[in-house]
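Provenance and format

Records in this collection were gathered into a single text stream. Each protein contributes a sequence line and a token line. The two records reproduced below are adjacent in the stream.
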Amino acid sequence: MIEGVPDRWMVLRVPRPQDESRRDLMVEVLLECGARGVEERDDLLVIYLPPPSEDPQAFVRRVTRELERVSGSHEIAVELDWQPHEAWEERWRTHFKPRRITERITVAPSWERPEVPPGTLLLTLDPGIAFGTSDHPTTRGCIRMLDGRVRPGDRVADVGAGSGILAITAALLGAADVLAIELDPWACQAARENLLLNGVEERVRVRAAPITSKGLPGEPPFDGIVANIESSILTPLLPGLRSALEDGGWLILSGILRTESEASVVAAAAADLGLDGVDEEGDWWTGAFVTPD
């Protein structure tokens, strides 16, 4: 059980745009505003957030302005409600189901134990209130990119680790030393519990710390880094991420819309990172980059 969680959650209901690119931009804004979950219904986006430090109505007005800015609409009606923590947790349990991501990786919630083919990997997850369940295309894109790139004995960093799903994936694929970096203390706690669920706590370290343009001070170079965070945050971090890699190392970047991919490739090239592979799902884009040997 995650300590210090609120006893109730702010629930915002926002009309869901039919245009997928506008919808994805709105979801990105909501996550940046602190959303712990975004539920997509036929005509609504339902957002769950911890109670804000500011006046709730002022917060809703601020979120509304941001949504109108990215959607190009000036008539977005945002409804405010509150929900007990227990009801929020139960709702997410109904939506998080086992999912096979690659030929050898299946992700399942801790309350289900699906049968998987012999010789394949089952990643068990209880996201708690952290981002990362395999229900988002960017998470799946990163898992697909990790599968085939992680080699036994690798040192890997997961930047913006959330629930720890990508760090655990790297460990299950054979990485010997994984550093999961996450600023949110609730997510760090959820990640540590997920390490125990998957038996990788001896090989994965969770560190509550920000990532900056200076890279990962105090750490030897990594064989690979995965970062699934918003593109606006990723771009200024690229020089630091490059400096944290071994020569010949790889970097997986996600949280990037297809419309942003060209700019991301250009920014990565400026940091001496060459494009090595692409994964696309819906409006979302994941890129794998390598450093020169």
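Adjacent record:
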Amino acid sequence: MSEQPKRIVRDSMIGLDLPAVDRWSERVAVVLGQNPGPFTGPGTNTFIIGTGKNRLLLDTGDGHVAYAGLLEGALEQVCGGCRIETIAVTHAHPDHIGGVEAVWAKLGEVPLHKMPAGAADRGLPVEALTDGAELAVEGATLRALWTPGHARDHLCFYLPEEKAVFTGDNILGAGTTVIPADGDLGDYLRSLERLLELDLEVIYPAHGPAIRDPYEKIRDYIAHRRLREEQIIAALGEGRRLVADIVAAIYTDVPEFLHPAAAMSVEAHLRKLAGEGRAVEDEAGWHLR
């Protein structure tokens, strides 16, 4: 019998390099947020969307000092000095919403659209987006899809003109998504299943390169999570009670500096198992019911 794989998704953000400004299609250009790191890869992808003089900006990076100027130059490079008429944000994590004020300061204040997230929106004047709402600029229509899991306020955006979906942090161009403490793995898996229902040719992720085999990637993400759940159940069955011990047993192919992120994923799986009545935590740690 062949040995069970350690992981389904095998690519990684480590060492990944992308251009600071790039055109991904006739109506989509990407500008890196200038915030590279172990979790952001080359940086947050922020997108200039549309074909006319007035365009939409999707996500804003984390407010790095170099970003707003790079964006201004990209508008000249990509479309001869077109302007941003509106901003949309996938969710309120700092590397997506953190650059709003810098963009406003450089290019002028324009409407900000997202699903409200309370205090995480930092008092910004958000124009609420709900599931199914649409934003349009010349040459492009974005339909908001509520896809919670990574974050409660997470939206993906479907671009019918290209059969494309902007997946924010729900699907990345390399590696897998972390489900933080305020996330929900069950919601996340349901969100991935929802993406499978779309008519797709390409995924535009918030980190990493475009994905030209969208259904394979989504199915791999689902299979990866199912495998991790099986591995965690097996580790619990072997008597491993602590998250750190489960991480050490499962993530043997992952550099130790990424183990804290792996721990967040393990904790997300354990919360899911607990919610389903299949695991419980007590003073000794976690164990199966």
